[in-house]
Design brief:
By secondary structure, the protein is mainly alpha-helical. Helix 4 packs parallel to helix 6. It has ten helices and no strands.
Length: 226
């Protein structure tokens, strides 16, 4: 009987999974704030190292860099897994999850991090790219209109799920496994935003500053989504 996994495949899977956590754990937000601005991100706002808190601590330019970096932390490992071990359907999912776990609980900064929004978005974009056609526009539209980053993060996640279901029904680039993967990420992101949801319901979740006033001031941003 042939082994289910060859030695080479086993090494690939081990490197991909461990590498996904370590790559996801690179504290982009902490590094940008500390190295680029001399700011301790943990002393500001929510104390997290994600995009929203970086905006609060260091401004929108830094926040854009961090969002892109955190997105890549999910996208790159998931894409590598999808290409290298496509025959093992669960491995890319494990890699996607571990990249997000690394972002949220980074070994490099004392198991602290963000809420996993950008990193999980990146993972889903790599594994179920068709779903991004709905998720990303919905998330961006929500933040532009409402200026609630937390709501936009969740709306984008739900948009990924809606997109996945639509394209699955159409038989275009999404299978049932992909829909289940997105649903899992949606549940995870909602669990990471329970405090934001409570504030949204109570009407005291802070918004981003009006777009015409966003000259770099961070004080009016919300409690953070990532």
């Amino acid at each position: 009987m042939e082994p289910l996994v060859t030695v080479v495949e086993g090494v690939q899977i081990a490197c991909l999974t461990v590498g996904a956590y370590l790559f996801g754990a690179i504290p982009v937000g902490w590094l940008v704030c500390r190295v680029g601005f001399g700011v301790d991100i943990f002393q500001h706002g929510s104390g997290r190292s994600g995009t929203t808190n970086v905006y609060r601590a260091a401004g929108k330019g830094a926040a854009i860099i961090v969002f892109c970096g955190d997105l890549l932390k999910g996208f790159v490992p998931a894409l590598l897994a999808r290409v290298l071990v496509a025959e093992f359907q669960l491995v890319p999912v494990m890699v996607a999850v571990l990249a997000t776990v690394g972002h949220n609980w980074s070994v490099f900064i004392g198991l602290r991090g963000g809420r996993g929004v950008a990193t999980s978005w990146g993972s889903v974009m790599a594994l179920v790219p068709a779903a991004a056609l709905v998720g990303i526009p919905l998330g961006l539209l929500t933040v532009v209109i409402g200026r609630y980053v937390s709501l936009a993060s969740l709306a984008g996640a739900v948009g990924f799920l809606i997109g996945g279901i639509i394209f699955y029904a159409l038989g275009f680039g999404v299978d049932g496994f992909g829909v289940a993967l997105i649903a899992g990420f949606v549940i995870f992101l909602f669990s990471q935003h329970l405090d934001n949801l409570q504030r949204l319901i109570a009407g005291n979740e802070r918004r981003l500053a009006p777009w015409t006033d966003m000259s770099g001031s961070r004080d009016s941003s919300d409690h953070g989504s990532s």
